[in-house]
């Protein structure tokens, strides 16, 4: 029994170190990804819930996050960097964090997973991974999105909407386009 526990503990510690190393590697990529600008694989968003123009909470922005993630799921995956404006200037996550019951990065990550679960499907949460970095003294989040194993539809007002990443934007496909795309992609 003791030997089995020892082997398990050693394997767990080795995996934990490897995971920590990978997380640090991914975090170090954030400034380089931002410096290259938006593209077919990179999108910047100022916030998840905080409307920068109106200086208030706007839950409608969660749909914009879901739409972007759906577009990446349906294409080749990509990086969604949150807390950065369209020009790549760090804005930080402070305003978004202030909207959470527990204003910390763990709650922020949980909020992103909740958005995916509610609007795209909980089975897709394993296909996103969130890391946090610091740019210009401000916390930013990078959501690493892998391509989904199935067509991803966003639920919006009881309607299923299909989005795909096209160039440096996310575009809605009509039913015919979505069916054609999905039959080739999956």
Describe the structure.
With 186 residues, this protein is an alpha+beta fold. It has a 4-stranded mixed beta sheet, sandwiched between helices. Helix 2 crosses helix 4. The longest helix is centred in the N-terminal third of the chain and has 35 residues. The chain is globular.
TL;DR?
The protein has 186 residues and is an alpha+beta fold.
Estimate the strand proportion: 15-25%
Shape: globular
Q: Got a strand count? A: 9
Rounded Rg: 18 Å
Number of helices: 5
Series of H and E elements: HEEEHEHHEEEEEH
| Secondary structure: helix percent | 40-55%
Largest sheet: 4 strands, mixed
Instruction: Round the mean pLDDT to the nearest integer and report it.
Output: 90
């Amino acid at each position: 029994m003791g030997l089995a526990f020892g082997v398990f503990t050693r394997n767990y510690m080795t995996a934990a170190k490897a995971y920590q190393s990978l997380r640090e590697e991914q975090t170090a990529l954030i400034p380089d990804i931002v410096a290259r600008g938006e593209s077919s694989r990179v999108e910047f968003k100022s916030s998840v819930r905080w409307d920068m123009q109106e200086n208030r909470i706007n839950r409608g922005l969660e749909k914009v996050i879901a739409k972007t993630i759906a577009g990446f799921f349906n294409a080749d995956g990509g990086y969604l960097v949150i807390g950065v404006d369209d020009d790549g200037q760090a804005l930080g996550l402070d305003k978004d964090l202030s909207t959470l019951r527990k204003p910390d990065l763990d709650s922020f990550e949980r909020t992103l997973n909740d958005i995916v679960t509610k609007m795209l499907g909980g089975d897709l949460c394993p296909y996103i991974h969130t890391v946090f970095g610091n740019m210009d003294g401000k916390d930013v989040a990078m959501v690493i999105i892998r391509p989904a194993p199935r067509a991803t539809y966003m639920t919006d007002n009881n309607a299923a909407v299909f989005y795909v990443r096209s160039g440096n934007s996310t575009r809605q496909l009509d039913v015919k386009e979505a069916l054609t795309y999905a039959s080739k992609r999956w």
